[in-house]
Structure formats: C-alpha cells, structure tokens
Amino acid sequence: MARPKSSTDAILQELRDFGLAYPGAHTKSPWPGHLDLAVQDKTFAYLSLEGEPLGVGCKLPHSSSVALMLPFTKPTEYGLGKSGWVSAKFGAGEAIPVDMLKAWIDESYRAQAPKKLVASLPGATSAASTPVKAAAPKQAAAPKKAAAPKKAAAPKKAVAPKKAAAPKKAAAPKKAAAPKKAAAPKKATAPKKATAPKKATAPKKATAPKKA
C-alpha cells in the first residue's frame, strides 16, 4: 500500500540528497520506519520516511546546547542524547529551517566519518559526482555592546608624612670629677744630731826607764 504524501516530503528528499553528497555516505535502515544516512555503516543522520511528519536526528558535539533551546528539539532517545545527539520533529504546517538542518547534517557527518574522509571534504564529490553543498553560513553574532569604561579609581589619599622624631636631648655632660687633693708633703725628717766626737784619749805618760 502506497504511503500518503506529506507536505514535507520534498524537504525530506532534499536533506537526504544533501547528506548522500558527502564522501562515503549511504542510506541505512537499522529498523522499520527509518531510511537514515551513514558513512561506512556508521549513522550520522536519522531521517523519517515520506508520508510521515518530518523528523531529523543528528550528532552535534559543538552546537547541541544551542539546538536544544529550540521548541521543536529534544535529546535523542535510547541514551544517545548523552553523546550530543539532538532530534527535531515538525508538525504539519510548521516552518522548517532547512538551512539549519543541513548545517546539522554537516556537523554530524564530520563527527562520525573517518578523519581521512573529513580531510577530503574540500572539493570532494560523491559517487554521483555531485559537489558537496556547503553548510549554510551561520548568522553573524550581534556585536557585543562596548563595555562601559571603568570609573577611574579615586586617587589614594596621600599618606601623611610621619612626624619627625623629636631629637633626643643631648645627654648632660658628666661633671668633671673634682681633682683629688694633693697629698700633703710628708714633713722632712729632722736630721739626726751629729754625734759629738769622742774626746781624744790623753797619751799615756812615758814610763821612765828603769835605772841600770
């Protein structure tokens, strides 16, 4: 039984063709209800089928936090959200940001593909010789408001110079020691009186010669 057509089928086909333009990309159906995009059997985009509401799931190691702020996104189920996978689903009549979804596919391919294939992206072509479509450029971020100039710091109050220490009073000169009184000269010893010379002994009288 043919699937009913959806207003988003054309967009779904556009996204699938965009992903298949990458080197080594191919479709993969791990379970019913999916016709996903893979590189060397490693899925890099989960896509819904024609006739169903459009659904896209990509691995966004760099932009997942921003993507999850959108009202139509949520972390991918089965624990894949912990690894940066984000799923988006759109109801009938909702505006679909095609360029943003292509940018997601580009980021997811680069996260899942072997380094050699990622390195070959500039000028690379798919098996059908379809050039890789460049991801839509991101909108330039609004210029940040110039930071208000910081108020000049109030000059520090000059430190009052310390009062000069009062000069120490000169020590009073010590009183000169009073000169010791000169010792009174000893009284000269009175010279001893000269001993009076002994009187000369009178010569003995000559003995008269005895008479012969």
Task: List key phrases describing it.
6 strands; single chain; Aspartate Aminotransferase, domain 1; alpha+beta; 13% strand; 212 residues; 17% helix; 6-stranded antiparallel β-sheet
Q: What can you tell me about this protein's structure?
A:
The protein is an alpha+beta fold and 212 residues long. The protein has a domain at 9-119: Aspartate Aminotransferase, domain 1. It is built from four helices and six strands. The chain has helices spanning 9-20, 64-67, 98-112, 115-119; strands at residues 25-28, 36-39, 42-47, 55-59, 73-75, 85-89. The chain has a six-stranded antiparallel sheet, covered by helices on one side. Strand 1 and strand 2 (36-39) form a beta hairpin. Mean pLDDT is 74; it is low at 123-143.
Provide a quick synopsis of the model.
The protein is α+β, with helices and mostly antiparallel strands. The protein has helices at residues 9-20, 64-67, 98-112, 115-119, and strands at 25-28, 36-39, 42-47, 55-59, 73-75, 85-89. The N and C termini lie far apart (224 Å).
- Give a quick account of the main beta sheet: strands, pairing sense, barrel closure: 6 strands, antiparallel
Q: Termini separation (Å)?
A: 224 Å
Tell me the CATH topology of one domain.
Aspartate Aminotransferase, domain 1
Low-confidence stretches: 123-143
Number of helices: 4
Q: Which oligomerization state do the chains in this entry correspond to? A: single chain
Strand order of the largest sheet: 1-2-3-4-6-5
SSE arrangement, N to C: HEEEEHEEHH
Helix content: 10-25%
CATH class of one domain: Alpha Beta
Residue share in β-strands: 5-15%
Structural class: alpha+beta
Radius of gyration from the alpha-carbon trace, in angstroms: 63 Å
The number of distinct β-strands equals 6
User: Judging by the overall fold, what is the CATH architecture of one domain?
Assistant: Alpha-Beta Complex
Shape: globular
Q: What is the mean pLDDT?
A: 74
